[in-house]
Each structure stands twice: as structure tokens, then as C-alpha cells.
Amino acid sequence: MGFYRNGNMRSASFLDGFQSDYLGSGKGKLKAAPTKTNSSRLVTVLTCVQLAFAVYATLLLFYMSPTVDLRSKPDFAWTTRLALQWKQLIIPNTVSHLQQEVPSTGTIPLMEPLNQPINMSEVCEHETIDFEQKKSDNVKMIKLKKELYDEVLEFQSKAFGTETLSELMAMKSKWDLKGPNKAKVTVILNHFKRKTLCSQLDSLLQQTLPFHHVWVLAFGSPNEQSLKRIVETYNDTRISFISSTYDFKYFGRFQMALQTEGDLVYILDDDMIPGKRMLEIMSHVAGTEKYQNVVLGSIGRILPFRMKDFTFPSYRKFGIKEAGLYLPDPAYDILVEKVVQVDFLSSSWFLSSELVKTLFIEDPFTFMTGEDLHLSYLLQKYRDAGSFVVPVDPSDKETWGDSEHRLAYVSETTVIFKDIVQVRDDQWWTTLTSGYITQWAAMHPQKIDAFFYAHSVSEVIALAPLLEKFRSTPAKKAYIAVSGGKYCSCEDAATALKWPKSVCKERRFKIFDLGVRTLSKISKSEVPVVQAVYAAMKGLIKMHNPSVVITVNDVDVSVKKALKMATESGSVGGNGENLTGVMAPALMLLPRATVPKALWIADIRSTALPFWNKMRISINIITQNRVHSLRRLLKSLTDAYYLGDDVPISFNVDCKVDEDTLREVGNFSWPHGTKTLRRRIIQGGLIRAVSESWYPASDDDYGLLLEDDIEVSPYYYLWIKYALLSYHYDPQVSLPELTSISLYTPRLVEVVKERPKWNPSEAFKKIHPHTPYLHQLPCSWGALFFPKHWREFYVYMNMRFTENAKENPVQIPKSRTNGWQASWKKFLIDMMYLRGYVSLYPNFPNQASFSTNHMEPGAHIAAKDNVLRHDKRDFEVPLLKDDFRNYLPNGKMPPASKLPSINLFNQPVSLKGLKAAGAKLGQDVLECHPNEIVAVHHDTGLPKECVKF
User: What's the distance, Cα to Cα, between the start and end of the chain in Å?
Assistant: First the structure.
């Protein structure tokens, strides 16, 4: 490597020269000598030369050994220097140059000049620290800072526990300093102008846990040559020098960390001179089960807290508690004696080499600064990894990560330039609104009603009416998250919502820009989008705890997947609750056309909204040879507004169904769920056709029963959903007597022989002319039945069914139903009367309803045994064609306690009074006392016992 031979040189002339040097001829000529004598002398000379060279080579190789430190051995003048030079040529130091400059001559010098300095005093320089550690004399600020620090420690101690250094070192770790399983730590030192390299290397060489490698980086440094000489002088093959004329800024060192083959990486700023035990301490902590998936450091920051005006201050704001903390902070006498989680680390980072990759998932906010926050933000967002400042032993500086904190404090106080502060303020605010759970967010979890998500501007416009309804409703709170960048920026969303663009600059929660723009701009895979939206929304959901996440149902498929995973991420088990017992938010996928019709969603209590997807509503049609009626019903069902729910539909026909009906059912396409056809083998009649058309599969399975001569309003499904959430799924509402939700408003009192006309608007005008009401009469012309009570009804009808109506043991006083035959409704009326059950009915002008009965010939109407004359005007009501919210009291469903209730005969009676009437009759399947009613097993509907009411 260090030598080369000229190709034109001949061996003979070389030997001639050699002989003339050693044998001589007086005048430059060879003397004639006897062949034998000359040969002997030549052999002797060559032997002596060979022996001398062997001795010299042995000494040279000894001093060139990597284990020999030439600085500590006697100086053999030229031999030592020559050994050092040859060592650099034959076994070069592990030095890499990201960009190596070649002299213009094109030749590479074989050796450095022989007068290279080797004494450490000649190459090492040290920072002059001629100032005292700054101390604050502001009593108020000292008090505020310490109060905030104590609050943080108290919260973290209760949340996940905090340990002292001795407690950390007592924890079990997979890395054993004294055993065979020692951690391989690669230390990366980044240098530019500071004169601290020798101090850092001296400290690292004295560590209780030896390092695996040290990489000294000099990117665009004006001191590159001096830094290089220092590394060379240390003469340790584990220490490498890596330089580039290009300045890779703060991210370059992390890019280099990707190349390590070690277990752990310790990245140090040039102002950090670690104590001698730091590698031992950090490795041990990183090997514990609790802290193996985190990044550790010695200095950190806790970002600002929200102020009373709901804005966030600058992290450099002086004089207020909410500006956050710098830890440790000698200025306020704050020392870290227990491990503390921070929002980001500064000056040093100790983590597994695997975690380093996370820094490059998203483009940074800027390459000029902020790599510290970017690392902590992405580690939490994508790896669920926290950032922790490791505690110290105040009496032992060898446990400190910055044994000379004044250097690090100078670095902290240099970041005071207005433009840099603004950039970093913008950066941390961007992370907070992109799902970064800061210490403030962890300590102060929010509670909002709804989180909207829009991936495009058109989606913002579609969701705007409902968002504005939430924001304008008292005591309601809702935010919107947008994808960001080319999809939909915050400014684009503000314009679409007709908000000032300044909302995107305020540090106040309104619009959350998720920054999906920071992903690869050329990838066609859905994975980056899913990953980014999921990670961001998961954090935002955890911070703000919305009851529901709302988007349009035609949102991008990958986004839909991400939102589904994000909303489900906090739930545990099958009950939809998180670890704290709070319901995970529901994902609401609304058709765009339905959004303006569903503004009532904002009026539902936040405790009920998480149950949005819990219910399963099925449509069950009973049809028989009335194809024109069926076709009308199906058209009305198809034209109705739905809410993005899966709504299965079933057709139930008897054995004598005609061909036209079967063809109509077969050709019908249902866009909202599955379609099922059930056909009986033996004619069952209407009582079996209806009662066997549906049976609940769970407590959240609801059956809408419709005969084919019914027609529904476009708003029928919205009424059902609204009522279920308001009166059945709201944990704050207790209405166990509610068995069903009617779509129809009756005009007659049908259980009385005279069948008088009745108008609920007149009956309840003192309360509100259009209030919904509770009625003891079940509806057979369009109603949704509840699972628990339908199971109960099945058992009851099985126990009480008789072919002869007169043999039925239940005879309700003055009720025309006592003589009804072949009616499933008669048995349901009996059960509801005996047990005090009710149904919810609508009440709108002119008795407009969500369903109507066209009174067409069938099993009852115009039947031979039906002696009553039916006037179509008494049964056919107008269908509601506009938003029913406008008619409700105060534009929304009244509280359950405000709903009026009437008995079977349309007389006002309290719910307790209804139970008392049934108990007084005493004709239920169990014999109970006059103050008791029958209670059933929840799962089976079988009678269980008598209970007091």
C-alpha cells in the first residue's frame, strides 16, 4: 500500500548497485575477486541485513498494534513517528468521508508530513467557561415553575409511576454490565465549532460500560481538520471520524445512526460531557421492560399548557406558568431526581437503533431546526414510545448526562432569535394538532361531542351544516380535522366554512391539519395514507375523547379504514369501552344528501352518541299477492333518507304467494344491506306471518314490521334512529316500559266500540301541540319493536294463544280487543296492559306521520268475517315530507320525563298508573299481589317473578 516499484528497473543493475555500496572498488569499479570468497561475503552481508530488518520489523509491528497507545510509550524519535505513519498507511483508521476532495493534481499523497503532532496538549482545545450558572431571583416564577413541575410529577406518579435512579438501577434489565450480555452502544458526537471533543472522548473512554463505537461527525464544519487530527491522535480503532463539506444540519447524525450494527445509539450534542456512568445507566434503563420502547435523555422540555382564554402561549413566553418547563432547570433550582416524561428531549438521545428509523416516516416541519421535537412526536405517533429524562444522583456527577450543565444552558439560551422561536412554536403547535399527546393533553383530557374529518374540500362543504349545528348548540363542542396539503389544507377548509383564515394561525383548537402532505408524494400505495390518518386521529381521539367521529360515507376507502381503526383503538373487548370505562367513539359515515336532514344529531346527548352503530335495524315486510301495494312500499323505502347504516331487508310470504309478488321481490335491488326471502310451506295466516317474520338475535337487534299496504315517509328512518338514541340508548334516560316506536299516528280510539276520533295535537296542546307521546296501544301499521319485549311477547303469546278468543283468560274492561280473533296484536295489547308497557308515537300537524295505511283488501280489511265498515279517511294519514325537527318542542325531542302518557283508551295516565291498572286486573301468567307486576328473564322472555312497581 505504501510502496511501489518502477517497472523499468532491472534486477541486474539493482544487484550491481547493491554490491558497489557494500564491497566498493576504490574508484567505483569492482575488484576482481575469487568467486568463492566474493559469494561468501555476499551471503554474510545479506544475512546481516535480513536479520537487522527482521528485528526492525518486529519492533515496528509491535508499535503499530491497535492495542498499543503510542502516546503513552517512549518516544523513539523517527522510529515512532515512522511507525505511526506506516500504521496510517497499512492499517488506516476507520475514517469515512461522505464527500472526499481530491487535489487538483490528481495524485493522492502516500504519507502525511512527518512532523504531525501527537501530544494531546498540541491538538486538544477546551471551552472556556468563565461565567456562573444563571439563577433566577424572581420569587413568583420560581414558585410557578416548581408548582408546575410538582403537578407533572404527581400526575405521572399516579398514571404510570416514577422512579429514582437507585430504583431504576434495581429494576431487572436484559443488559448486564457484569455478565456476558452487555449492550453494544454506538456513540455519535456531532461537532461544528465547539472545543469539547477531547473532553467528550476522555469521558467516553472512562465509561464503566465500554462503548462499541464512537463516530465523530463534522458536517460543513470550519474545524474539520482539527477535529480529524484529534480523532487520529486518540489512536483508537473504535473511534471514527466522518466528515462532509455539506452541512447535513441536525438530522444528519440521525441518518448516520441508521447505519449502526450496535444495539443502542447514544447521540450527543457537542455541549454534553457525560459522567462516567452514563452508558451503564442508560443501557440498564433501556433494557428494562418498562422503558425498552422509549427514548432516554438528560435534558427535556414540557410544552406549553392551555391558558384560561383557551389559547396556548409561546414556549418561550416569560412570566407565566403555562409556558411549560425546561428540565432540569438550574435557574429555578429544578433538578430531576425521578424519571420524568417530557414532550421532547434536547442535547442527548439514547434509544434502540430500531427506533431511529421512526424519525424519517414523515418529512420534518423544517430541516433548519426541531429534530428533537420531530423525533419525540413521531416516536409517540407511530411507535407509542415516550420521551423520558433519566434522574441523577445529585451527589454524584458521574451519573449526570451533562456533567458541565453550563455548556448546555448556553445552548438553551441561544435559541432566542425571534424567527427561530416562531418556527419552533409553529412546529410544536402543528404536532399538537396532528395528534401529539403532550403532557398537557395527558394531564387534562378534553371531552367534546363530535370530531369531523374531511379529506377534501368538497367533504368539508358537505359536512359544514352539521358542524355548524354542533358549534351553535349550547353546551356542545365539535372540531374538524382535515387531511392537509394537496388534499385539503387548513386554509382551504376555513374558506369552505366561511371562517377567517386566521384560525389556522391561532393557537386555539378549531381546525386540525393532519399534515398528510408530509408523506411520500409519489407513492401510489394506500398504506402511507392509512398509517398517517390512523396515527393522527388516534392521538386526537385520545386527547379530546369525542362521542362520535363524523365523515361522509363516500370518503376514500383507505381513509375509512384508518378512521375505523382509530375509533376502535381505545376500546377493550366487545363492549366498546376503553380502559377507563368510557365508551369509545362511534364512527358515523353519513351520505352527503342526508347531512342537512340529520341536524338533530347535534341535539342527542353525548352519552348516547357512542351507541350510534350499536343498534341493528332490520326491515321485515309481510306481503301476499298485492304486488302493486308492495311496489309502492318498496319505492318509498328506497327513496327514504338513511344514515349510512347497514339495514337488511326481508320478505315474508305464505305458501300461496302469487308469481308477480315473487318476481317483484326477486328483481328488487336493496342498496342498504342484504335481502332475504322467507316462504312458508304450509299456510300460516296473518297471525303467524307477522309474529314469525322477525326474532331478535341480540339486545341490539330491532325489527321494523311493515305490511305491504303501508307506505313510509322519507324521514321514517331518521325518526327511528333519533328516538332510539334519545329514549333507549341514553344512559341518563330510564324508560324500561318502552317496547316499540310507532311510525303512525292514529286518528281513532280503536279499542272502544264507538271508535271516536282523536287528535293528539288537541289533546296535548297545553304541553306542546306536537310533542311525541307514550301510548299503551301497540301499532300494527308501521312500528319498530324492541328485542327484549319481543322475546317476552313470544313467550306470552305461546302461553295464552287460543283458537277461540272467548277462552282467553285476559279480559280488559270495556276493551273491544277482547273479541278479536286471529290477531297477533290482541296478545301484544294484553301483555302491554298487564305489565304497564307503552309505545312512542309521533304527533305532527294534521296527524302527518312517518307511515300511512292505504286500507287495501287483505286478511283483515274487506274480510268476510270483518263486520266493521272501514272509512279510508279514518286510517290514511298524510306522510311527513319535510324536516320534522321544525315541529318538535324547541326543535328537538323532549326529555323522557316530559313525554305525556295515555292508556289503552287514550286517557292521560302516568306510567305508574298504567302498571297499577294491569296489576289490579291480576290476569297475567303469574299470580301477583295488587302492587306487583310480572318480571321476566332478560335473555329468554320467560316469566321470572313478581316485582313491586
Answer: 102
Query: What contacts 777, CB < 8 A, 6 or more positions away?
Result: 746, 750, 751, 829, 832, 839, 904
* Residue (of 467, 431, 463, 464) closest to 450 by Cα position: 467
Give the DSSP letter string of 129-142. Answer: --SPPP----HHHH
pLDDT of residue 110: 39
Please state the φ and ψ torsions of residue 6, each to the nearest 5 degrees. -70, 135
Q: Check if the beta carbon of residue 240 is closer than 8 Å to that of residue 254.
A: no
| Residue 404 grid coordinates | 458541565
Instruction: Provide the strand spans (E) within 494-636.
Output: 511-513, 548-552, 586-590, 616-622
Q: Which H or E run contains 688?
A: helix 685-691
**Is 246 within 8 Å of 99 (Cβ atoms)?**
yes
Whether the per-residue pLDDT at 919 is higher than 80: the answer is yes
Q: What is the largest CA-CA distance in the chain?
A: 159
Tens digit of each residue's pLDDT (9 = 90 or more) over 50-76: 777 777 666 656 555 544 444 444 444
Q: Rounded mean pLDDT of 273-277?
A: 95
Of 205, 346, 330, the residue nearest 271 (C-alpha): 346
pLDDT, position 737: 96
Task: Determine phi and psi for 701, rounding to 5 degrees.
Answer: -105, 120
**Strands of the 299-302 sheet, one edge to the other:** 325-327, 299-302, 344-346
pLDDT digits (tens, 9 = 90+) for 465-491: 999 999 999 999 999 999 988 889 999
- Tell me which of 95 and 652 has the higher pLDDT: 652
The predicted structure's pLDDT at residue 24? 43
C-alpha cell at 250: 441536525
- What stretches of 72-196 show up as alpha helix (H) in DSSP? 78-90, 120-123, 139-159, 165-170
Residue 544 DSSP code:
H
Higher pLDDT, 803 or 414: 803
802 vs 720: which has the higher pLDDT: 720
Pairing of strands 901-902, 838-841: unpaired
Q: Which of 65-79, 327-341, 897-911 has the lowest mean pLDDT?
A: 65-79
CA torsion 184→190→191→192, rounded to 10°? 170
Nearest to 686 by CA among 572, 821, 833, 872: 821
Q: Which residues of 493-523 are buried (b: 16+ CB within 10 A; e: fewer)?
A: bbebbeeeeebbeebebbbbbbbbbbbeeee
Q: Spell out the long-range contacts of 228-232 with Cβ–Cβ below 8 A and sequence spacing 24 or more.
A: 228/95, 229/116, 229/117, 229/123, 230/123, 230/124, 230/197, 230/198, 230/201, 231/93, 231/95, 231/197, 232/88, 232/93
Task: Give the bridge partners for 784, in sequence order.
Answer: 704, 741
**According to the model, what pLDDT value does residue 318 have?**
86
Q: In Å, how far are 229, 264, 615, 867 from 601, measured between CA atoms? A: 71, 52, 16, 46
Residue 423 has pLDDT above 70, yes or no: yes
Whole-number Å distance between alpha carbons of 507 and 422: 12
Does the pLDDT of residue 892 top 70, yes or no? yes
If you compute the radius of gyration of the chain from its CA atoms, what whole number of angstroms results?
Answer: 43
Strand partners, 701: 616
Residue 89 region, left (φ>0) first, then alpha (ψ -120 to 50), else beta? alpha
Residue 260 half-sphere exposure toward CB, CA atoms < 13 A: 30
CA distance 831 to 737: 12
* Cα dist from 910 to 495, 636, 775, whole Å: 52, 36, 11
* Full DSSP string of 373-428: HHHHHHHHHHH---EEEPP--TT-GGG-S-SSHHHHHHHHHHTT-HHHHHHHHHHH
What was the pLDDT predicted at 420? 85
Determine the Cα–Cα distance for residues 18 and 516; give it in Å rounded to an integer: 77
How far, in Å, CA of 670 to CA of 717, rounded?
Answer: 15
Q: How far apart are CA 844 and CA 871, in angstroms?
A: 22
